Amino acid sequence: MTTSAPDRTQTQELAAFLRSRRERLDPRDVGLPARLRNRRTPGLRREEVAELAGVSVDYVVRLEQARGLRPSPDVLQALAGALRLAPDERAYLFDLALRRPPGADRPATAAAPPLARLVADLAPLPAMLLNHRYDILAWNAEMAGLMVEFDALPPPQRNAMWLCLMHPRVREFYLDRERVVREGIAHLRAAWAAHPEDRALSGLIAEFAAGDEEFARLWAERDVRVNGRGHKALRHPEAGVLTVQFETLRPLQDPDQLLVIYRAADAESQAALDRLRVAAAGPRKGPDGLSHASASSQRP
């Protein structure tokens, strides 16, 4: 496990996250009797969290005041149980305390060649490869035809969250836009905790928070979730409305790279994807014959 100490930003976020998870709980959620008198603050008291986790009240106070503590894995496990954290929230808590495997701070900045070939081979299914920042490292012609011509964009803009927030066409692409943005932010928050030394990711988040009120509002809610499966309803300018199911896979040998695959959710959506494929002029290939590019060539 890594032995470096959390910086001030992480310590403050750890404190804020613990407070927010404590305040959302009702005493009855953890088997405690409901209090009869009115409470000044929502959720559990610090004394109750301390009792449930088997630590001192002073320890909980010092954690929530960001007073430089670095909890052990055992204490983090106890706090996660006391606060009824979901698996993604539990991982986020451990990441904030820097209790993660060595090497987790080295982000992928280019597609692993075998994965780039796999993206191309998945055609006719739209597919793309992302890193934890949502940088788009590789894609096939079907994904470009469905979303946007990625290779026509400057490398810093080949980022799924940037496109969703900033690109004029992609901003109007999702019928349930807030849910898509919310899920993307929940992923980025988990990634931010897992990669605290990734300045490019921190810079992206700061850019989004300063330039988009919706992002700033949802980021402040501190939702943490890595959503690997679901559906998206899309409004394509040529194909019309269609729905895709998506699956996100994490390769064992390249765990920082995420393979995203779209499939039509119904017959009408499949017909729309077929029309797009027929209309496409074909993949734009790079020097190695694959339709892919590094999305972070300008982000060290």
Automatic annotation (TrEMBL):
InterPro entries: Cro/C1-type_HTH (IPR001387), Lambda_DNA-bd_dom_sf (IPR010982), MLTR_LBD (IPR041413). It comes from the Bacteria. Residues 35-90 form the HTH cro/C1-type domain. CDD domains: HTH_XRE (cd00093). GO terms for molecular function: DNA binding. Residues 278-300 are annotated as: Disordered. This is XRE family transcriptional regulator. The lineage of its organism: Bacteria, Bacillati, Actinomycetota, Actinomycetes, Kitasatosporales.
